[in-house]
């Protein structure tokens, strides 16, 4: 039986939520099929991730792994935005 994902096991994050809201919004953005709705989903996910980054900024525990996951998620959302709306980014 497995209670926690391996990436979270051993992480001492009393302040960290194991399945934060940003992750649900991130997945919704990744799997959005409506190209008109995708930019809104991406923006909502980015906002939630940045909120989590600010929460972790004041936490005195080790959260390097979560920082990396958040950074990777932001990078993926920016890449997704460029794929979904390349004409909006073209000059």
Report what the structure shows.
The protein is an all-alpha fold. It has one domain (21-85). 60% of the residues lie in helices and 0% in strands. The chain is built from four helices and no strands. The chain has helices at residues 21-30, 38-57, 64-84, 86-89. The termini are far apart.
The biggest beta sheet, please?
none
The portion of residues assigned to helices is 55-70%
Query: Tell me, what's the shape?
Result: elongated
Radius of gyration of CA atoms, rounded to a whole number: 15 Å
- Succession of helices and strands: HHHH
Which whole number gives the mean pLDDT?
81
What structural category arises from helix and sheet content?
mainly alpha
Whole-number tally of structural domains: 1
Q: Which stretches are low in confidence, meaning pLDDT under 50 for 5 or more residues running?
A: 1-14
Task: State the oligomer.
Answer: single chain
Distance between the termini: 53 Å
């Amino acid at each position: 039986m497995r209670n926690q994902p391996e990436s979270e096991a051993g992480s001492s994050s009393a302040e960290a939520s194991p399945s934060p809201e940003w992750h649900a919004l991130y997945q919704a953005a990744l799997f959005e099929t409506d190209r008109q709705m995708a930019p809104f989903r991406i923006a909502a996910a980015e906002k939630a991730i940045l909120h989590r980054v600010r929460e972790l900024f004041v936490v005195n525990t080790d959260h390097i792994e979560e920082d990396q996951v958040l950074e990777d998620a932001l990078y993926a959302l920016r890449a997704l935005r460029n794929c979904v709306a390349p004409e909006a980014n073209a000059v």
